[in-house]
Design goal:
alpha/beta, 6-stranded mixed β-sheet, globular, binds NADPH dihydro-nicotinamide-adenine-dinucleotide phosphate, binds aspartyl phosphate, aspartate-semialdehyde dehydrogenase activity, lysine biosynthesis, NADP, threonine biosynthesis
Length: 351
């Protein structure tokens, strides 16, 4: 693949930013060249200002880097963004206008009519929207590619094979989302310990809309959203990492539990065909024990890049139900962006 490409990480000191720095350490195609933060950390050494919340210590090279202010010019051609929603949108658009290839976790551009919202195993063909994005916005080399919300991504990874094989008419999902999903320090411990908080602002709407874009198609008339009814309830639970989701589906045609399990377990997509460096060998891992998946046991399967499905069984109201679990800051955030960038590199968009 030739020389490694320099990348900048925006929001490098946060929960997702730290994951970027960790996952990009020793990456075969990308090299972290710039770390970007707010006034709070700008000008200081990353190792000094970053309250590292992951195992081990920050990679040595990153720890010695000076954090840049987000208004300073970015030199790297590729940008990974872990900026807070609301702040990200404008910063990312101006970087793309300067020619940067921007891969973002933030919500701001996900539903834009010319921006791919991508999971490479699900809708790699949506990359075609980049051409329209550039034409519409007058950008020559730059672009924005987004990855979904951390609950949506694991839900849709599990839905896609079933959508293709049987069709899905209705979906009900209840999430149990980890504390790290709220960033650091996130929800106060007094609010979360011994408790379940039955509301996460904006989360249900994101799951309900992003799913339709992801399962939909992209063509000359733009994005066509998938036609399914979906209802989400989102809760925050005292788990450190890993979002769990209880899902019930009404399928387009009847299928046995065995067929559903077989379709899920055998699913492979473009990243597996291409052997991308961050691709899990099995994007969906199916467990058959009646007490799996569990965050503490299953969130790091396939280096945190898989969705783990279990408890597949008939549903008394719809057709089938199951539980899906996935790591929220790896496949749900930084790992998802990196996989998108790997796909686009192979497809020539980073040349
Ligand atoms: N946590 C998760 O599971 C997921 C998060 N996301 C999304 O990823 C993004 C980052 O989330 P997360 O890491 O949890 O958030 P954090 O609150 O942990 O981190 C926010 C980061 O953004 C920087 N920042 C804050 N304000 C500004 C500003 N005004 N200008 C520039 N930089 C700023 C902070 O820098 P400094 O420390 O210097 O102040 C910090 O590096 C969000 O858009 C979030 O919605 C997406 C999927 C999952
Ligand atoms: N809201 C998610 C994390 C997040 O930031 O989502 P989004 O990127 O869609 O804003 C959670 O609480 O777990």
């Amino acid at each position: 693949m030739g020389e490694r490409i320099d990348v900048a990480v925006l929001g490098a000191t946060g929960s997702v930013g730290q994951r970027f720095v960790q996952l990009l350490d020793g990456h075969p195609w990308f090299r972290v060249a710039e770390l970007v933060g707010s006034e709070r950390s700008a000008g200081k050494r990353y190792g000094e200002v970053c309250d590292w919340r992951l195992s081990d210590a920050p990679p040595r090279e990153a720890a010695e880097m000076r954090v840049q202010h987000y208004e300073e010019p970015v030199r790297s051609p590729v940008v990974f963004s872990a900026l807070p929603g609301g702040i990200a949108g404008e910063v990312e658009a101006s970087l793309a206008a300067e020619g940067k290839r921007v891969f973002t976790n933030a919500r701001d551009h996900r539903m834009d009519p010319d921006v791919p919202l991508m999971i490479p195993e699900v809708n790699a063909d949506h990359v075609a929207a980049i051409q329209a994005q550039r034409e519409r916005r007058g950008w020559k080399d730059g672009f924005i590619v987004t990855n979904p919300n951390c609950s949506t991504i694991h839900l849709v990874l599990a839905l896609k094979p079933l959508w293709d094989a049987f069709g899905i008419e209705q979906a009900m999902v209840t999430t149990l989302q980890a504390a790290s999903g709220a960033g650091y320090p996130g929800v106060p411990s007094m609010d979360l310990i011994d408790n379940v908080v039955p509301f996460i602002g904006g989360e249900e709407e994101k799951i309900e809309t992003e799913t339709k874009k992801l399962l939909g198609s992209y063509g000359p008339d733009g994005f066509r959203y998938a036609d399914l009814a979906i209802s989400a309830t989102c809760t925050r639970v005292p788990v450190r990492d890993g979002h769990t989701e209880a899902v019930s589906l009404k399928l387009g045609r009847k299928a046995s539990v065995e067929e559903v399990v077989e379709i899920l377990a055998s699913y492979r997509g473009r990243p597996q065909e291409l052997g991308l460096p961050s691709a899990p060998e099995r994007p969906i891992v199916v467990r058959t024990e009646n007490d799996r998946p569990q965050p503490i046991l299953d969130r790091n399967v396939e280096r945190g890049m898989a969705s783990v499905v279990g408890r597949v069984r008939p549903c008394n109201v719809f057709d089938v139900r199951f539980v899906v679990l996935g790591h929220n800051t790896i496949r749900g955030a930084a790992g998802a962006s990196i996989l998108n960038a790997e796909l686009l590199r192979v497809e020539g968009y980073l040349d």
